Batch of 2 targets.
Target 1
Amino acid sequence: MKKILFIRRDNIGDLICTTPAIYAVRQKYPDAKIGILVNSYNADAIINNPDIDEIYVYEKAKHVPEKNKLSVWWSNLKVLMRIRKEQYDVAIGCGSYSPRLVRYTYMTGAAVRIGYLSKNVDKSKSYNMPICEPEKPLHEVEMVFNLLSPLDINNTPSPLRIFPLSDETQKVKNFLNISDIKEGKPLITFHISSRRPENRWPIDKFIELARLIISRYDANILLLWSPGSEKNPYHPGDDEKAELIIKSVPQIIPYRTNHLRELIAVLSFANLVVCLDGGAMHIAAALGKPIVTIWGSTNPDRWRPWGVKHIILQDENKKAENISIEAVFNAVEKLLA
């Protein structure tokens, strides 16, 4: 194989769950050119990955509301033309079947196009090397890894891979050096944000959990959240919720991450991460951090933290708000031990 292209159109966690497959291809074909097509929202998750030779970034119109759709489409077409000019031998459409993913894979011009085939789709309108979606539920890492079987790769997926940028890491180190950090005490990171309402944990519970951890362990707690106002219709954030926590728990240390690369760097310093199901959880897993995840409606068999110590807290109604403070604190204690 000379040139292999991965296509990952989805969110941050989906892309990070693709990194074991990329690593496996690099190990099997060390001299191949490996490219990946990602969107501007998740690109920072693989920007420093040594397994990848070239990153192609396209935009989703909903991520750039300041641009008109025609401009976005034209820009994306130019990205696809760059890919076609490169003449990739193989393109892998990563993720469950979708007509748009098939279309992107076809437009790369690759000779071999691999991806999952839905039972209800005409084969002639899909990939020229389709794979049937597995009947039993698999983790997303395993789902992507299965797509490598036509490349004669059938081993066990590695841990997730992510690589903080050195300048961002230094920036966080400088911040922590001037912050009121208690030496010799664990650094516990809270990430309070989730896109899905049913996956969110009430802010008053985060406040009480922080107070309990500080009183019992005198630990350092670093607060992270999705930046921006909750009133922003395109990119709603949690600035207001973070401000409430900061006012209620003066000992907490806030760090506003404006870019994904900053979030990656900050999480690399944590001893333990308390978060909701989402991209931050997968970043923490890729960094090898122990994780307490307050879970909502997502299927943990498909999306649990891969390859690290973790505790998932999910109630029968699949609503994160129902998880008690005591349950989260007990999980924190177990992982700290």
Target 2
Amino acid sequence: MTSTDQQAFLSVRDLKVHFSTEDGIVKAVDGLTFDLEKGKTLGIVGESGSGKSVTNLTILGLHDRHRTAIDGEILLDGKELITARESELEKLRGNKMAMIFQDALASLSPYHTIGKQIGETYRKHTGASKQEARARAIEMLKRVGIPQPDMRVDDYPHQFSGGMRQRAMIAMALVCDPELLIADEPTTALDVTVQAQIMDLLKDLQQEFGTAIVFITHDLGVIADIADDVLVMYGGRCVERGTKQEVLRTPRHPYTLGLMNSMPTLDGPVDVPLSPIPGSPPSLLNPPSGCRFHPRCSFAEKVAGGLCSTEQPALEVVGGRGSACHLTPEQRQEFFADFAVSRHN
């Protein structure tokens, strides 16, 4: 995770996304900062409602401007996106940046063939003819591993399996060779075999095109497979970030630790029970005071002065490694020791 704007292809600075509702203001994203370089994958992980998808829909400009208050800065290859006109964003979407959605069946039109839907994006951004767009659609279906692409190009979404529909969505997202690809839990509804195939496909395509990828998931196992850097979100805020190795091997935030303790491992002791995080994610309409994780944190009472419930911890970043927690390094080393022992012995 780069620390300099000059190197960052995608740069997000102090992003706030608040929605106006009948019940009040929902602080879906509340001060998020990160960078992403070309050819790298940033994994954003967190429970449902943590702000992952909202962040990436905001990058694409897919929000109701009349009901959404957005503050901060989003730079894509030096171009500011928050203040960009809709016409400018339309030129970028599908062309310079694209998104793979979680539910391919819901995202694809049941009334049009797969080839037409892939080709439509290509024609819009390149001015290609129908014949050229069809040829490009066949080429992309072949590239993502669809058998007999010259025949399947005329099939409808319901004629594809779940894994093939997801491959078709990837083909559609990549048809214009975007430089930024946002994948919103694209493997959640797939079985593990197909999931592994999709992950390998994304890595191969990234190597071929040098694409920057933002990969959204709640699954740390997926993060371990595909990400270079990891950003952990909770309650609309970043609570920890760093390289994959740093975050997964030596977590610094109790929430990250909780996520990892909830995940089974293949190489650890078989008699170590899983420890789910107690309670539920916070309301973004009325978030808790202080650290938003403190009502669920087993270490909050160990911090002197009750800081966890009264003062929001800042995200302290050194060399790209950061965490937002009131625990001292000494306390963290002591309290997290059992995790290291159970996971790596």
